[in-house]
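User: Hey, quick favor. My workstation is busy. Could you predict this chain's structure for me?
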Amino acid sequence: MSPWTRRNFLIAGAAGTAGLAVDNQRRLLRSAAKPWNADTGRALRKYRDPLATVCRSCPAHCALLAFRDGDRVVQVQGASGSPTNQGGLCSRAHAGLERVYDPERVLQPLVRKGPRGSGQWEPIGWDRALALLEGHLGERTTRRVLHLGQEELLVEELRPAFAWAELLVDEPFPGRPGPGSGESLYGAPVLWPDLSRSRTVLLLGARPFDGHFAVPVARSLAAARRSGARLHSLDSLEGVTGSLATWHRVAPGAESCVAYGMARLLLTDRRFDAPAVAAHLGDAPSRLLAALHAYTPEAVERSSGLRAADLSRLADEFAQRRPSVALAPPGSPAAPAAALLNHLVGAVDSPGGIPTGRGPYYVKPARRGRAPEAWLAELVQGHTSADLYWVTNANPAYDAPQAREVSRALEDREKIATLVVMDTHLTETARLADLFLPLATAFESWGLAEGCLPDGRPYLFLQQPVTRADSEPDKLKDPKGEHLSFFEPWPRPLGEARSVSDVLLGLATRMGRAGAYAGYADTRSFLEELLRRTWGPGSLEALRRRGIWVSEEAEPPAARPRVSLARYIPAEPQAPAALSLVGHASANLPRAYANSRRGLEIAHRCEAYLHPDTAARLGVRTGDAIILQTAQGEVQVRARTIQGIHFGAVALPDGLGHWAGGAAAVAKTLEHPPRDRTLLVRRKDFLSNPLGLAIPAPQPGDPIWWEAEGPGVRLRGLLPFRPGPDGAQDWSPVPVVVRKA
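Assistant: No problem, here it is.
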């Protein structure tokens, strides 16, 4: 007889229904922290009403589609028509969406009440905030410094209105002039490398597949690997990049020595592109060879640990399997060495090589005089000061070298008379501010992402708000607004957040300094006029629907002067230190804001990597507490031994160690608002939860991701201010002393 009676069947059905109800409530619980998972049962509705925009979490500026449920963005995915990210996105885009709806986000202006850093704030309105800013920007304040995380619209156009003494940008876009652009090494700012058509790729300390990678570079390198290109990683840490390439274990900081050794072999055997060298380099081959006299294979082996025979094989392959290209981190000593190799094999402005910026630019690039670290170093040393230091979407109190000294300098009113911070969270820098302004994210503001593809075709991506709709009174304030636009839902930021472009434009207009831009009510009206002059009426609407414009015609590279690279070559190879501190990207998000439980790719423990032989020599085992000491300070971490590291290297993750910015950033438990525990059935839940069952709601104090070890330590606090060859900060390894705690 079958065990399934009518009674047993009804009992099993009731139990299954209860299980579905519990599962439904679990999904709703998870959606409180991750809004794009909300209403997963309504998958068809989730994909309604998409809008094209741009991810601004890194300089790659990937085009994406934001899918909305009503006025709330619930999901993002890469735009398939984007020629740069080609429909792909990394976790930073999803974390950027989490940033929009983070319950700890600050959405109103605040003015400091107590001493700097005391955490005492008074909420104010924008009228008072603008009045305070107008006073700080008076005629008596001449040393005004604007520090941006990335370039923003209207900053350069409104520069005469504010007369910034310094304009600092943390992450410049590819192809824009300024420190770290490669302009001094190639004669023009460089664009994303054309790796997909390369046959040999030499990575000199560059790790495109690790941590803070740029999606276009990673995708083009993956395409090169699939097509049979040979990838060589010269690095002291294997990482993900080394595991996908041929990893050559070299001493920390010796990547430039290997590259100069290869260049010497190419020049000695006359295996270089003579026309390219004559056209692009101001140094004759004989002068270069004289400058490289000390970089013999034997000397390179002593300095780097790479065998002389392997060096010769690398040089042969780099010369014979063209197109060949060498990559190095901007600002590092290996950057001029990589540029020299690229010039020698004719890889500059050629297929499979390094393309340079075209110019002129569609939007005026910010004229950056120097890297932010150069100005901050002078501030710490007491060689400069500022009447007004305005920081937007940047966090120098955490992100800069010698972060503790930078924090102390920002607290000093003799050095910084007025500190204004515009951000989404009360970061380490924001907690020291006199005035805090709520920043609109890329999902809530207007902008343009401009670039040029390796084949010379310019492109534009539109950044547009994709959140809730604007109100009619706000539209009526636009003197150039069309009547029909009153009935169209223009999205706007959450709360009282505003974009830096809108705030600067409003301030300039309020102070009577806007000049030719006084007639624009906001950034959108400026964009509309800019596109109308270029393409005609309705251009903003057309670009708004598509989000992407790619020219069908390639533009030739701009004429560029010849450059001299012999002056960057050290007279002799540098002797390696006994132990060097090497940074690696554990987190996948920008370090400026890390309050994202989804996108941080959290390392639950902050561990220092050592080679087993090195650990044995120091008497250290995995799990032991060790102290790392540099000239800038010391920290205590746990040790872990791995094989994929050089014997003279100690690797520490970069991106951890926040002490402000939100619960996830500082490894505290998240404060949840209590969820409604009612057992009443709502109509939209009836099909998935007919009984209306509920489970206990998350309570304040519930753990999120971290273990007891917390967020680790700040790697950058252990590194010195050190300008690189082209003016950008050099993040190369530094000597370190390791001892057991």
